[in-house]
Structures are given as C-alpha cells and as structure tokens.
Design a protein that fits this description.
Shape: globular
Main location: cytoplasm
Order of helices and strands: EEHEHEEHEEH
Keywords: Cytoplasm, DNA-binding, Exosome, Nucleus, Phosphoprotein, rRNA processing
Mean pLDDT: 91
Distance between the termini: 28 Å
Protein name: Exosome complex component RRP46
CATH topology: Ribosomal Protein S5, domain 2
Number of domains: 1
Strand content: 25-35%
Family: Belongs to the RNase PH family.
Pfam families: RNase_PH, RNase_PH_C
Oligomer: single chain
Helix content: 25-40%
Length: about 190
C-alpha cells in the first residue's frame, strides 16, 4: 500500500573486516531498522530473507573481498512491509550501479478467509487474513527468488497467490523502468 515506506542506503563495495571477508565474492550485509526501538527477532528473520534474495542477484564475484552494506530504515508500516523492503533493496542496488544478474521485486498477497486473494494488503487486512504470502520475483522469467508464508494455505492456493504475484510484478518492473528513466533524463 502507498502508506508503507522504507528508506534504503547502500554502502560499498568497501574494504571488508578480515572476519567478514569472503575470498571469492563480496560479503553482503542487510540491516533492517524498525521505525522505533531496536531490531528484534522479526527484523532479524526478515534481514536473512532480504540478504538471501539480494545475494541471489548481486554478481559479488566481481568485487571479491569487499563488503556491501544495505541499511533499510522503516519510515512507516501500514502493511506489506516485507515486499516494500524488497522493492527498496532492489532500487538501492540498481541505483548504486552494482552488477546484478536480474532485477527483483516483492509482492505480498493476503488470503482472505473466503479464499479470495488481496494484493498489497494493509495491516488490518493482514490481521484478518488466513495466510500472508510474500514473494520475491525476478524480472528474468518471473522466477521466484524467495517465498515467505505466514498462516496456512493449500498448495493450490499458494500457486494462485504466486500467479497473482507474478502478474503484479510486471507493473512493479515498469515502475522501476519509469523511475530510472526519470532520474537519468534530468
């Protein structure tokens, strides 16, 4: 939803601390800062999902022994936060000019008790949902890079949510293209 916003900052590729250095690729760190207070268990688990997604697309072999830090600061959370973080992460990677194998976007689906699928649910719709599914979808072949499910749904319902998310991804990738074009045509 339009009311969820996340600020992304990307630092690096910079010299890595010896303890974090990887000999064959860049070490990628993702930090998720909540709007208030300190990061907790939820932020940590989301950081891991975000890092795995970013690692799947960043061509880190081109910057071995370096460190890349992506810091995501939640400004407001009105629902669909994880997909907002995914979109902010991809835009930050793109904006930093890091070599990527593909772009990706995040889409959240809420499965209503009656089985209907809502895209981009608000916090309230998330609370009323039977299941919430968030997908990270690659721009190449609309492949799924990450899937996260909360609640219960059948395999068939999950496939329906995924299909809806893959359709929605087209709109998001168009938005990326438009914003990049706007930025570089100034």
């Amino acid at each position: 939803p339009g009311d969820t916003s996340v600020l992304a900052g990307l630092y690096g590729p910079a010299e890595a601390k010896i303890s974090k250095e990887l000999p064959d690729r860049a070490a990628l760190e993702v930090l998720l800062r909540p709007k208030v207070g300190l990061p907790g268990v939820l932020e940590r688990s989301r950081e891991q999902l975000l890092r795995q997604t970013c690692e799947a697309v960043v061509l880190g072999v081109l910057h071995p022994r370096t460190a890349i830090s992506l810091v995501l600061q939640v400004l407001s959370d009105a629902g669909s936060l994880l997909s907002c973080c995914l979109n902010a992460a991809c835009m930050a990677l793109l904006d930093a000019g890091l070599p990527l194998s593909t772009l990706f976007c995040g889409v959240t689906c809420a499965l209503q008790p009656d089985g209907t699928i809502l895209l981009d649910p608000t916090s309230r719709q998330e609370q009323e949902a039977r299941a919430i599914l968030t997908f990270a979808i690659a721009s190449s072949e609309r492949k799924v890079l990450m899937a996260n499910t909360k609640g219960s749904c059948s395999v068939e319902e999950m496939q329906q949510c995924l299909a809806a998310a893959q359709r929605a991804a087209t709109t998001i990738f168009q938005f990326y293209r438009d914003s990049v074009r706007r930025r570089y045509s100034k």
